[in-house]
Amino acid sequence: MRSPDLYPALPEKVREKSGQPIELCFQCQKCASGCPMGERADYLPSQIIRMLQLGLTERALQSSSIWLCPSCETCSARCPNGIKIAAVMDVLRAMAVLRDFAAKNKEPVFHRVFLKSIQNRGRVHETLILIQYKLKVRDLFSDAVTGLKMFKRGKLPLFAKKVKNKKIMKRIFAGAAQAQG
């Protein structure tokens, strides 16, 4: 018996928006065996696809897996049916934000802080991202020892390097905002 889903039409929308034939997945697990985030995610890529096949889209949207996917395409390269799982994960992230499921995960907070850093400075400033993220998720000291080690080794610079032409970055973000609607 299929579990009730608040959005029963979503699996079809995922199929349509991603352009991926998720119904072709026969759970061979090749995508899962190569996933670099498999150990950290709550569900493997094959499990996310299975949830979609069963109409459990709400569960997939609440998953941290969709936010941890680095879109490295390892899963896609291994899939015998050519399903581009990274494209499916992109669609799921967008749907999670639209349906406010993203607020239940810390990962979207990192995504927003990361993009804001790039938008404001033209490149990533690791130290500032770390501080802003830790403040937003209210978890200041859980990995302070690691942060101190990174700082001592010069991996967390105090000052950010600047980009020569910020206008290009502003155009990119403006174009993305316009395309999003």
What brief labels describe this structure?
about 180 residues; mainly alpha; 11 helices
Tell me what the structure shows.
This protein is mainly α and 181 residues long. 56% of the residues lie in helices and 0% in strands. It contains eleven helices and no strands. Helix 1 packs across helix 7 and helix 8 (107-121) runs antiparallel to helix 9 (126-137). The relative contact order is 0.11. The model has no long low-confidence stretch (mean pLDDT 84).
Largest sheet properties: none
End-to-end span in angstroms?
38 Å
Beta strand count? 0
Integer average pLDDT: 84
Radius of gyration: 19 Å
Number of helices: 11
Going by helix content, strand content and strand pairing, the class is mainly alpha
Strand content: under 5%
Give helix % range: 55-70%
User: How would you describe the shape?
Assistant: globular
List the helices and strands in order.
HHHHHHHHHHH
Low-confidence stretches: none
Q: Give the oligomer, counting copies of the same chain as homo and different chains as hetero.
A: single chain
